[in-house]
Amino acid sequence: MSYKIDSIIFDLGGVLIDWNPEYVYLDVFKGDREKMKWFFDNICTNDWNENQDAGYPLATATEDRVSMFPEHEELIRMYYGRWEEMLGEAIDETVNILKQLIDSKQYKVVALTNWSHETFPVALKKFEFLQWFDGILVSGEEKTRKPFPEIYELTLNRFNINAENSLFIDDNLRNIEAAKSLGINAIHFKSSDLLKEQLTQYNISIK
After folding, report:
1. Cβ contacts of residue 91 below 8 Å, gap of 6+?
2. What is the pTM of this model?
3. Which domains does the chain have, with CATH numbers?
C-alpha cells in the first residue's frame, strides 16, 4: 500500500518525554514495588490521574482523594505536590527523529498529548524541542482526552490535517486503536529504534 503522509502527530509522554511517578514513590516506599503498585492500583490510580488530564483541577482532585482515603493523605498530596520530580528527561533518540522530520520540511508536525493544563507549562519550560512543533493540543486545555474521538477530530480540524494523510505515534495501544477507528494511520511506539523501522512502512526514512 502506498501512503502519502504529509502530517505527523506525536504523543509526548512515553514517546518524547520520560514521565514516571515511580521516580517519587519508589523511594517513598523504600523500594517496595508491591506496596507501590497497590497504591497506584487502588489510591492514586491511572484513571484518577487521567481525569486531571481532561481538565479536572489538581487541587480538587487531591482533596477528593484525601476525603476518600484520609489514612493515605500524605502519600496522596505528594502526587501533585512533587509532580515535577516525576518528570524525567527527554527521550533523546525520539527527539532526534522528530528533528529530522521537521528539518526535512516535508511534513506538518504537531503534538497531541494527554496532559493537565496546570502542569504542562513546566514541560514547556524544561524542553526546548516543544517549541519546534507546528502546534500542540493539550487535553487539559480542551477538557477532553485520548482515546475519546472528539480530541482526534479536534486535532485534525485545528491543524487542517486530513486523516488519511496523517500518521499518529503514541505509546498507548488504546489511543492507537482509537485513532485508527477514525481513519488515522498510526504507529504503536515501543522504542526509538523500532519507530525508525515502522516509519519506513510509510515511506519515511530516518537516519
Report:
1. 15, 16, 17, 18, 192
2. 0.95
3. 7-16+91-200 (3.40.50.1000), 19-87 (no CATH)
